[in-house]
Amino acid sequence: MLYIVKDKFINYIKKDFVLIIAIMLAIASCFLVPISKKYIDYIDFRVLSLLFCLMIIVAGFRSVSFFDILSHKLFQLTHTVRSSALVFILLCYFTSMIITNDVALILFVPFSIYSIKNVLSHRHLIFLIVLETIAANLGSMFTPIGNPQNLFIFTNFKMSAMTFFTTMFPYSAISLVILMSSSILFPKTVIEDKITKNSDGIFKDNLNKYICFTALFILTITTVARITPALVSFMVCVIVITFIDPKLFRLVDYSLIFTFTALFIFVGNMGQITIVQNAIGDVVTDNEVLVSIFSSQFISNVPATLLLSNFTNNATSLLIGVNLGGLGTMIASMASLISYKIYANENDSTIFSYFLWFSIFNIAFLALLLLAYVSLGK
């Protein structure tokens, strides 16, 4: 019995390693910044509600074989692992420009795992998830609405659309070329379609649920676009799921929500530490890009944007820095935690391998884009 309990505990540690680290960081930061009402302000409840809604909607689509149907349609067009992997990577890249990087990852990482996991080696599966994550983070940097830091810089510095797009276009274009080239990492293995019965029949059998889940997804996207209040979409989602299929509540990855909450507290406290603020203020002038990249590795690129905006008027350099700063550590862009947690929930996940390849790919992309920055001279 003791052996079984020990084994379960070790498996839990492996599965929720990032959650444990996040909680430890949050607790440690509490000794540096006394607990107060400000802690509530640290937590982005809009993001947490969006995570919950999207996770339960994806679980709902999976429960009615929606991914089966999409896989069937996809494989009719792509046929091979390499072309399918490229499609998934590009889907994350382009959709993140409109629906943000975290939403793109919640949608397409589970879909890609479900679709071609059985024909990929474990290493290639990690390659795919990591590249999807990088694609979402880099694709989202091309539009003001792709991620929170872009929207803040675009509005706070009153940046024109022309300035924004001309600043980010070179890096977006280079990123796209590298991502497309990365498809050579995947084999040309022909994919055998898993659908054994008529996909039209599956769709008709679950039509009512498809309509409900699609409506909930559209409602959630309006919240992403800041049209519908987060509380409204959250309450509607809870009520509808309660009536349709309450078992879906058990499929939500609540540890991911707790991980985000702990990290919100940690990065919020880090931004309040006077020593940190003074150190950044002393070096940020004329070094916005490098300082933005460096600080993003420890406090994430969104808080880094808010913090550094107080010390510089160079909006374009700040924009480049915090977007490239999303590469690197897993905390550099919190969206990276989403794909990690999805992978960690797989039965045969190997956390060390994921961290290793995540670091290798992120460092490689960051180095290439920094080289582009130096070459462009801006």
Structural class: mainly alpha
Q: What percent of residues adopt helix (DSSP H or I)?
A: over 70%
- Give the low-pLDDT segments: none
Radius of gyration: 21 Å
Major beta sheet summary: none
- Give the averaged pLDDT, no decimals: 85
The percentage of residues in β strands lies in under 5%
Please report the total strand number as a whole number: 0
Q: Span between N and C termini?
A: 62 Å
Which shape, going by the Cα principal axes?
globular
Element order: H for helix, E for strand: HHHHHHHHHHHHHHHHHHHH
- The count of helical stretches stands at 20
Report on this structure:
The protein is mostly helical and 378 residues long. Helices cover 74% and strands 0% of the residues. Helix 4 runs antiparallel to helix 12. The mean pLDDT is 85.
Element layout with pairings:
Blueprint: H1 2-15, H2 17-30, H3 38-42, H4 45-63, H5 66-78, H6 81-99, H7 101-116, H8 122-139, H9 148-156, H10 161-181, H11 199-205, H12 207-224, H13 230-244, H14 254-270, H15 274-283, H16 288-299, H17 301-308, H18 315-324, H19 335-344, H20 351-376
Helix pairs in contact: 2-14, 4-7, 4-12, 4-13, 5-11, 6-7, 6-8, 7-8, 7-19, 8-10, 8-19, 8-20, 9-17, 9-18, 10-20, 12-13, 16-17, 16-18, 17-18
Key terms:
globular; 378 residues; single chain; mainly alpha
Précis, in short:
The protein has 378 residues and is mostly helical. The protein is 74% helix and 0% strand.
